[in-house]
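Structure (tokenized):
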């Protein structure tokens, strides 16, 4: 018996039901969404088998085939985990943060805030960690300078999310190309077209606004404390930057993502060995991540003045105990990261999201939904706009940035293929919207988190999160202008052209 095509009404009912389940999981029960996605897949499969008369084996094969498309991303994530651990141990990440903090100046505080948060997020791959550590410190400095908290929070978020979406260490930067079916570095190169101009605009805005606060007096005690503790625990030296430069160089030479990341790990291991780290310690950190020692000891001393003074003396740290304690807690939160095991949450989310997404695709639900969305769309600009708006809808109704990438990505993947566009166009659009817009929604997990750690309500920092709302707008405008459009070449390579080349039609 031939399976039936689902109606638009049934498709919308299924989507809204699963959306309500996910929203309840996030907002009411405050639990991870993995099981909810599996329950959504079970509901989809049940409808597909009972109502639409699909063979279960066919649906299962569609799910497995779909999950296989994300295996490269999973391998990359399992590589990124050890990479983060070795880069922290060898001093790569601490060095980037140390010198990033050194550029602070009252006259360019907002610009410096943008750059520091960008550097920290690029080097760690986490916008949440950036806001929760250096972001908090910068909020305190801004208070002393008389700079409004919402303005500072918006700039912190702009820098943090720039690094998050452009860093190969970021979960979302790996998820987007996995869903779209492209390579990690292709994805990052594609984002340069839209994120680069946006970042320049945002930097110019911070400079202009910053002029009115140029006369303030900068209190650098907290920053100096962070630098002192980092210098006591890590090897702070520009030599460590060889590791990221190797990765960047291999990426620029268009080498595959996995070998490029492996090269970055190898260089970091060599640096760590030269600085006295044991092979066993390195392997353990690659598996379970880095755990700070000096900062953890200071944080562990807590309010015990004698114990705190003893730890500081043993570490030759001449910083006021109260400030040292605060800085130590920040460093622990920022540097206790990495390791292969740390990637299991994201990888399991990818598998769960793909299980739900490809069950909907196999049963024809995504096709029906896509046909309804794509019916009025005639141009590449319209397709990109529809993708960005779909990500926004998911950010609003599903409350999670990962789903706002996975769901629209799965839905639009075939449409981009049929149009002849390179999949990096889809991955770019997903990240331009799904990642960046999530923090502008108060009930989204990202919006809720940043409001909590920065102490500023979402509605107040939204006008100043310049990068987050300008980037999707810039992406749409540039696409309608025909700038940065990538078509899929005969060998699968991206071909940049305003219109689809005649030899590819």
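Design, position by position:
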């Amino acid at each position: 018996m031939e399976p039936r095509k689902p109606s638009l009404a049934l498709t919308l009912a299924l989507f809204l039901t699963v959306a309500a389940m996910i929203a309840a999981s996030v907002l009411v029960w405050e639990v991870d969404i993995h099981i909810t996605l599996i329950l959504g897949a079970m509901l989809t499969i049940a409808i597909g088998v009972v109502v639409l008369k699909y063979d279960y084996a066919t649906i299962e094969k569609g799910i497995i085939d779909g999950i296989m498309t994300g295996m490269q991303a999973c391998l990359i994530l399992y590589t990124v985990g050890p990479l983060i651990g070795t880069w922290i141990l060898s001093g790569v990440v601490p060095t980037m943060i140390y010198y990033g903090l050194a550029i602070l100046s009252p006259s360019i505080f907002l610009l410096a805030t943008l750059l520091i948060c960008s550097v920290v997020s690029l080097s760690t791959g986490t916008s949440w960690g950036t806001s929760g550590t250096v972001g908090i410190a910068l909020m305190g400095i801004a208070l002393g300078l008389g700079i409004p908290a919402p303005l500072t929070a918006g700039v912190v978020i702009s820098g943090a999310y720039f690094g998050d979406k452009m860093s190969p260490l970021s979960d979302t930067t790996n998820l987007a190309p996995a869903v779209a079916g492209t390579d990690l570095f292709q994805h990052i190169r594609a984002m340069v077209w839209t994120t680069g101009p946006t970042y320049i605009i945002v930097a110019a805005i911070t400079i202009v606004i910053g002029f009115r606060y140029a006369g303030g007096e900068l209190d650098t005690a907290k920053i100096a404390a962070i630098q002192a503790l980092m210098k006591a625990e890590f090897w702070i030296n520009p030599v460590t930057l060889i590791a990221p430069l190797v990765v960047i160089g291999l990426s620029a030479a268009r080498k595959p993502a996995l070998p490029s990341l492996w090269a970055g790990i190898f260089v970091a291991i060599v640096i760590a060995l030269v600085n006295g780290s044991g092979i066993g310690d390195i392997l353990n950190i690659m598996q379970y991540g880095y755990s700070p020692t000096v900062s953890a000891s200071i944080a562990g001393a807590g309010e015990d003045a004698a114990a705190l003074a003893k730890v500081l003396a043993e570490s030759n740290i001449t910083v006021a105990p109260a400030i040292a304690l605060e800085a130590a807690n920040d460093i622990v939160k920022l540097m206790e990261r990495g390791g292969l095991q740390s990637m299991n949450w994201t990888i399991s989310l990818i598998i769960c999201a793909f299980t739900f997404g490809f069950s909907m695709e196999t049963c024809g639900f995504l096709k029906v939904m896509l046909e309804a969305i794509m019916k009025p769309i005639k141009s590449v600009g319209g397709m990109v706009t529809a993708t960005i708006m779909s990500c926004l809808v998911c950010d609003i109704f599903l409350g999670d940035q990962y789903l706002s990438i996975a769901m629209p990505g799965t839905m639009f993947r075939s449409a981009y293929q049929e149009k002849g566009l390179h999949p990096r166009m889809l991955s770019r659009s997903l990240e331009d919207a799904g990642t960046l817009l999530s923090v502008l929604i108060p009930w989204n997990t990202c919006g809720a988190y940043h409001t909590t750690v920065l102490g500023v309500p979402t509605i107040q920092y939204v006008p100043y999160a310049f990068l987050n709302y300008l980037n999707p707008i810039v992406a749409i405008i540039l696409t309608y202008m025909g700038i940065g459009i990538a078509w899929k070449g005969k060998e699968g390579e991206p071909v940049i052209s305003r219109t689809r080349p005649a030899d590819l039609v």
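Reviewer-requested clarification: The beta strands are 486-488, 494-496. The radius of gyration is 23 Å.
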